[in-house]
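Question (not urgent): is this output format expected?
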Amino acid sequence: MRLLLPPVGLIAAALAISPVLKPQDEEQANIIKDLAKTNKLDFWYPDATHHVAANMTVDFRVGEKESQAIQSALDQNKMHYKILIHDLQEEVDKQFDVKEDIPGRHSYAKYNTWDKTEKMVHKRPEMVSRIKIGTTAEDNPLYVLKIGKKDERRKAIFMDCGIHAREWISPAFCQWSVYQATKTYGKNKIMTKLLDQMNFYVLPVFSVDGYIWSWTQILKNRSKNQDSQCIGTDLNRNFDVSWNCEETKAVTDFIRSHLKSIKAHITFHSYSQMLLFPFGYTSDLPPNHEDLVCREKSMIYALTPPLAFRLFLHNPTSGSSLDWAYILSIKHTFAFELREKGKFGFLLAESRIKSTCKETMLAVKFIAKYILKHTS
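Got this back:
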């Protein structure tokens, strides 16, 4: 188990983590679930209490006031754990380890607040267009960036980032990928061929309200929940697959309206460096399971050295965009869990943004080349 302890008065509650351990059997897994019922445990991995199982590494944050009681309970039940972070605020501050070239300017090597993200200026307007697909619960605009030529009939890939507000490396990748695609067009043979023959629809920040709030306090989006005083919905558990909610209507409507051209759906998250495919809401395998496994293995091998991602066949979730897109008829669907594997959880330093984006872009190109060659 790995345990992360924040200091007293931690302001960045949205970025706080608690204990992490590896229950040896179902009895120990149930102990963790029971602790979560009586204590404020912020699970980082897995993302929900009911997913905790035997032989699974569990990461969670616990406040300083509760930390002694939690450690005592774990010790009494002979559960092995490790404290990863003693002072969470210190690690939050360490994230920002890249100096700005020009203060206030948008930088692709840094984490950017929403106001900077929204004002991204693209030097190739003939290749990049911004489409407003809706508004959020707090009336912020929801944009999709279209990368490529104006022909709507061409094959396309839909990519979304920032569906979970605290996963900052995710929107950082989407922003970087758009920048690199336009920057290298005409210079890089692969990128030039891809953009000459297909389009990319990129949703750089899915949970806009949550992302704005995550810079101060919260993790999810900011929609109000019926019959509850709590604010915030996990958007990646609100697609109509073993779940039913209209929170994601703007995105699903856009994808449905472009279904003839969209041949692949890729969603980016953190952390754990894994590559996932359907299904999450059931243990049943998709009809093209063997094809997906073969393609993912080829993709992973193409990224070595080093081995950037691990193949993960089943990650239990309900209502995910991954499963929804597959059932909708987009048979090439992938979910990337970006860096890193757990030492710092969601708190990936800015100095690792570039390397993370580079390795992930290799995988995106691999998928795009496959779509271009093998889909009709």
